[in-house]
């Protein structure tokens, strides 16, 4: 089989690595890829914002199956472009990807289908936001301010008081800090509890849950500082008990899929549900229409079923014939980020210590923002540089291995959290 992976981050590095474990795989292409992926696959310099071009290239290359990592191409309709050419593709249609592409759509969808989530309101002007706060609809502060559109994980803000909230709203609606992504905003009550990522594979008829994971979105230890695309994650066998997982499937996942079908949309691919486990039960924080990053880096290493078989069954509508099997190991991923991230990350900094880190037992390095300069030196090329993932018989062992390997890797301005997989404080 020839496969094409769309994307160039740590998630796509994990996808390529997992795909290559199957003897069925003859060739893997990745567009655009990165320096780490280039060691495993043929990287193609293609624009992910041109769905029709991507589909045409895949057809010319004789690609048998394509999987999309990032959200932007999905929201732009890349699945539809591939389907028009009769090409097998793993990822939801443009209509289904609206669950991630628009926070307003997602919240109003949950309201229509009685899916548990935080109380919310939508506004397009500063005056509308003031009226919402005056009405006390959100029951005081803190409140969460969300940009409607895609913002690479950086469009969510927690405001502790009205002044802070209005500053954020001003920056989004008036100053257009996030461009059109912040043309509309969602204001919602701030939920308390523990965050968990719950993902499923679905072929549009059958759903199969993945092992759950927990990610860390804030830049600083103790969940401080601004939101990022994700600074680390872990997955362990005891993260969610079976009873709670059944409740999530029954009260949230199935109503989401059924609700989409009732509105004329079938979801095929990976549905990611970001949850807050509150005292009142699990509630939805957000939907993603693809594998999480860095959740993929701790979930895929635990998958024992050949990943190519899973992807093919999603594309072909035969997921009901496949039983997913998972390792009892734990996995921890620590993201090493560039100086200035998540605002303006520095690039071009030389990276050393990769070879030493790779020698550590149970360690996997998933490159994200890396490239080779004109001299062949490995350098940083963006915010999240490398995800250092480690497997272990226990969560403590996996955590120790990940941090030991992370210490081997150096580049100017390297920053990372030191509390990934530590007991997470209730927020």
From TrEMBL:
Domain ATP-grasp: 107-316
Claim: Disulfide bond is one of the keywords in the record: no
Known cofactor(s): Mg(2+); Mn(2+)
Entry EC no(s): 6.3.4.13
Keywords: ATP-binding, Ligase, Nucleotide-binding, Purine biosynthesis
GO molecular function: phosphoribosylamine-glycine ligase activity
A Pfam family recorded for this sequence: GARS_C
SUPFAM superfamilies reported in the protein's UniProt record: Glutathione synthetase ATP-binding domain-like, PreATP-grasp domain, Rudiment single hybrid motif
Highest taxon, organism lineage: Bacteria
Catalytic activity as recorded in UniProt: 5-phospho-beta-D-ribosylamine + glycine + ATP = N(1)-(5-phospho-beta-D-ribosyl)glycinamide + ADP + phosphate + H(+)
Pathway: Purine metabolism; IMP biosynthesis via de novo pathway; N(1)-(5-phospho-D-ribosyl)glycinamide from 5-phospho-alpha-D-ribose 1-diphosphate: step 2/2
Family the entry assigns: Belongs to the GARS family.
HAMAP family: GARS (MF_00138)
NCBIfam families: purD
Protein name, per record: Phosphoribosylamine--glycine ligase
Gene source species: Chloracidobacterium validum
Name of the coding gene: purD
């Amino acid at each position: 089989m020839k496969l094409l992976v769309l994307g160039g981050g740590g998630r796509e590095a994990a996808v390529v690595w997992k795909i290559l474990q199957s003897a069925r795989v003859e060739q893997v292409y990745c567009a655009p890829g990165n320096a780490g992926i280039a060691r495993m696959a043929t990287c193609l310099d293609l624009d992910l914002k041109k769905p029709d071009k991507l589909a045409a290239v895949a057809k010319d290359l004789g690609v048998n199956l394509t999987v999309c990592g990032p959200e932007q191409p999905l929201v732009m309709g890349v699945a539809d472009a591939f389907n028009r050419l009769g090409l097998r593709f793993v990822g939801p249609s443009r209509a289904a990807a609206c669950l991630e592409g628009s926070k307003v759509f997602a919240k109003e969808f949950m309201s229509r289908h009685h899916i548990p989530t935080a109380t919310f309101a939508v506004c397009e002007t500063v005056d509308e936001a003031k009226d919402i706060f005056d009405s006390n609809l959100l029951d005081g502060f803190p409140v969460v301010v969300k940009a409607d559109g895609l913002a690479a994980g950086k469009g969510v803000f927690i405001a502790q008081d009205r002044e802070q909230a209005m500053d954020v709203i001003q920056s989004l609606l008036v100053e257009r800090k996030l461009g059109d992504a912040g043309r509309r905003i969602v204001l919602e009550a701030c939920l308390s509890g523990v965050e968990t990522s719950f993902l499923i594979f679905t072929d549009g008829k059958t759903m199969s849950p993945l092992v759950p994971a927990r990610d860390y979105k804030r830049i600083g230890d103790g969940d401080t500082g601004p939101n990022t695309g994700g600074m680390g994650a872990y997955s362990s066998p005891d993260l969610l008990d079976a009873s709670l997982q059944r409740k999530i499937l029954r009260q949230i996942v199935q109503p989401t899929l059924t609700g989409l079908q009732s509105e004329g949309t079938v979801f095929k691919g990976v549905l990611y549900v970001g949850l807050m486990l509150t005292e009142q039960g699990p509630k939805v924080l957000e939907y993603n229409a693809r594998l999480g990053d860095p959740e993929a880096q701790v979930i895929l290493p635990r998958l024992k079923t050949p990943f190519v078989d899973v992807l093919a069954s999603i594309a072909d509508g035969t997921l009901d014939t496949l039983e997913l099997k998972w390792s009892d190991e734990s996995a921890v991923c620590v993201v090493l980020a560039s100086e200035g991230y998540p605002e303006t990350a520095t690039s071009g900094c030389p990276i050393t210590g990769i070879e030493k880190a790779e020698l550590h037992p149970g360690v996997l390095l998933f490159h994200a923002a890396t490239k080779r300069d004109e001299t062949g030196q490995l350098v940083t090329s963006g915010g999240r540089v490398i995800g250092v993932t480690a497997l272990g018989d226990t969560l403590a062992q996996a955590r120790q291995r990940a941090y030991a390997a992370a210490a081997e890797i150096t580049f100017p301005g390297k920053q990372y959290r030191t509390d990934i997989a530590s007991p997470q404080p209730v927020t």
